[in-house]
Amino acid sequence: MPELPEVQTTVDGINAEVKGKKITDVWTDYNSLFHAKKDNIKNPEYFAHFKKDVVGATIKRASRAGKNVLIHLSNGKTILTHMKMTGHYMYGEYFFNGTMWKPVPKSGPLLDPYNRHIHLIFSLADGRHLAFADLRKFAKVFIFDTDSEKRIEDLMHLGPDPLSQEFSYTLFREQLLKRPNWKIKPALMSQDLIAGIGNIYSDEILFAAGVHPVSIVSKIPEAQFKKMFKTTVPLLKKGIDFGGDSDSDYRNIHGEPGKFQNKHNAYRKTGEPCPKRDGGTITRLMVASRSAHFCDRHQIKY
Ligand SMILES: [Zn+2]
Prior knowledge:
- The chain is α+β, with helices and mostly antiparallel strands.
- The protein has two domains: 4-65 and 67-156, Alpha-Beta Barrel (N-terminal domain of MutM-like DNA repair proteins); 169-295, Orthogonal Bundle (Helicase, Ruva Protein, domain 3), CATH 1.10.8.
- The protein contains seven helices and twelve strands.
- The strands form four sheets. Strands 1-8-9-5 form a four-stranded antiparallel sheet.
- Helix 1 packs parallel to helix 7 (222-241) and helix 6 crosses helix 7 (222-241).
- The two termini are 28 Å apart.
- The chain binds zinc ion.
């Protein structure tokens, strides 16, 4: 699932490629009975309103809130996209073949199998498209009045953002200690405590800090708390510098994979020797129904 670095990479891509462009049409084949009556484009009735709101508007800029992409429009509306498991936006030239949308170019990254399965596409005034690929179709997309951002359920409970000015050691510790009896891995991933961290980066943060994923938050010593804080921001920035993580479906605005998956020390390295050469082995364990990967030697359980 895209985490802070991948979502930021998409936001930067939208700002670089589609900012200032006018939306001339929008199409979707998301349609789910489960979402009937819900404020989500998977409900066809809602999509009809969504279409009225976006067609004719210009994309002012994109921003990120936790793992959500926000696309702000010239008409005072904002489109929220949570990419969930497999969603990603791409900019390029597409055509509709009567059944599905396909890229016009006959070669290049847009033809990557991970970039098929276009389920939402905005036609732009430059003749090109902002296309959303989503193999598993778990993404969430809806529109709201930009000035009501603070009252949107999906945004109002988000914890502090690690890349924001306010993010300090004191705040980091204070937020995690709101769940003193939780295991550290799910606490780091809890969006209401700290926004943007998921499965990959939590594994890498805990590896770097030498903390076992099942350690109880309140039992972690101050020194290890400081190590976790010190590794969090650099690791997330490293993820952005490497263009995000494409261990799974994530691709950037050009349909290209990122490279952070080549930098993992722990995530999905099960059975490999610890890169610290301490004699430990990377081990996989289910923690709060997610798989944690950690070194069984240097990551200490508190
Ligand atoms: Zn180790």
